[in-house]
């Protein structure tokens, strides 16, 4: 398995240990009763180029959070298939897929400012127009801004595996969130997860298989899918493969 600090993709997690264990308060998100968030804030310096991209392109590409339904056509200036990505890290994979699928509209949720700046910088350099960014907790965005049957796809690439068994409850891919995501997917829409942590991969298959609205696209042993062509192999993934480490893709569709 790849070292977890080697992945270029996001490590969604809860905000802090206390947040995970605190009693649920009125009005908290419906997806995680112990208030697991889709992120953990990490220290990181925003470079000059990233900050310039935020200043120049942020007003155009960053969508402010508001607990009201998102108008996808107005947000992107056109109709099109709607794809949600939960945590995009430094944005390289998001930019690659957006260029490969220009007909689709991609909404990426990421709170890490250097990552937001990095994706905006890539969008500016490559002329990418079909990406928007929500710099907010994805769980709240899903619960309060996305309506039922509005999504054509969801990407969750390399979420934090929380290696220790006692911390497994903090993992992002859990039944309440999967149920919520399934309600937001259109019939035929897909949920694509990828991880470099084998035990988490099996948990993903188990959790997604337990959601009645979803069905596995793979009949292979273990329920794992071949890597879809649109998901690029990162440099760290290539290094891991050379070292004999594994990466697992899990792709389910809504019935």
From TrEMBL:
Enzymatic reactions: guanosine(46) in tRNA + S-adenosyl-L-methionine = N(7)-methylguanosine(46) in tRNA + S-adenosyl-L-homocysteine
PROSITE patterns: SAM_MT_TRMB (PS51625)
Binding-site list for S-adenosyl-L-methionine: 85, 110, 137, 160
Region entry Interaction with RNA, spans: 166-171
InterPro entries with a match to the protein in the record: SAM-dependent_MTases_sf (IPR029063), tRNA_(Gua-N-7)_MeTrfase_Trmb (IPR003358), tRNA_methyltr_TrmB_bact (IPR055361)
Entry-linked CDD domains: AdoMet_MTases
Top-level taxon: Bacteria
A Gene Ontology term for the protein's cellular component: tRNA methyltransferase complex
Residues reported to bind substrate: 164, 196, 234-237
Entry keyword Transferase: yes
GO molecular function: tRNA (guanine(46)-N7)-methyltransferase activity
Pathway: tRNA modification; N(7)-methylguanine-tRNA biosynthesis
Keywords, in A-Z order: Methyltransferase, S-adenosyl-L-methionine, Transferase, tRNA processing
Region (Disordered): 1-34
EC number of this enzyme: 2.1.1.33
Similarity section: Belongs to the class I-like SAM-binding methyltransferase superfamily. TrmB family.
The protein's role, per its UniProt record: Catalyzes the formation of N(7)-methylguanine at position 46 (m7G46) in tRNA.
PANTHER family: 3-DEOXY-D-MANNO-OCTULOSONIC-ACID TRANSFERASE/TRNA GUANINE-N 7 - -METHYLTRANSFERASE, PENTACOTRIPEPTIDE-REPEAT REGION OF PRORP DOMAIN-CONTAINING PROTEIN
Protein name: tRNA (guanine-N(7)-)-methyltransferase
């Amino acid at each position: 398995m790849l070292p977890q600090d080697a992945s270029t993709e996001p490590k969604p997690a809860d905000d802090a240990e206390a947040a995970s264990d605190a009693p649920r308060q009125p009005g908290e998100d419906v997806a995680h009763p112990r208030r697991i968030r889709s992120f953990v804030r990490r220290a990181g310096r925003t470079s000059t180029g990233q900050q310039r991209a935020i200043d120049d392109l942020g007003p155009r590409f960053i969508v402010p959070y508001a607990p009201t339904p998102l108008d996808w056509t107005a947000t992107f200036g056109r109709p099109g298939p709607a794809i949600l990505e939960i945590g995009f890290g430094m944005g390289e994979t998001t930019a690659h897929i957006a260029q490969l699928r220009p007909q689709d509209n991609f909404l990426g949720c990421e709170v890490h400012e250097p990552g937001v700046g990095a994706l905006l910088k890539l969008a500016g350099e490559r002329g990418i127009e079909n990406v928007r960014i929500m710099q907010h907790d994805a769980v709240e965005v899903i619960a309060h801004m996305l309506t039922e049957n509005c999504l054509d796809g969801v990407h969750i690439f390399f979420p934090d595996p929380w290696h220790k068994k006692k911390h497994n409850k903090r993992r992002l891919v859990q039944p309440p969130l999967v149920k919520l995501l399934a309600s937001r997917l259109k019939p035929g829409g897909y949920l694509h997860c990828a991880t470099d942590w084998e035990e988490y991969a099996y948990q993903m298959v188990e959790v997604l298989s337990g959601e009645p609205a979803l069905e596995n696209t793979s009949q292979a042993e273990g329920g794992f899918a071949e890597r879809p062509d649109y998901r690029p192999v990162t440099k760290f993934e290539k290094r891991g493969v050379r070292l004999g480490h594994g990466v697992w893709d899990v792709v389910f569709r809504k019935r």
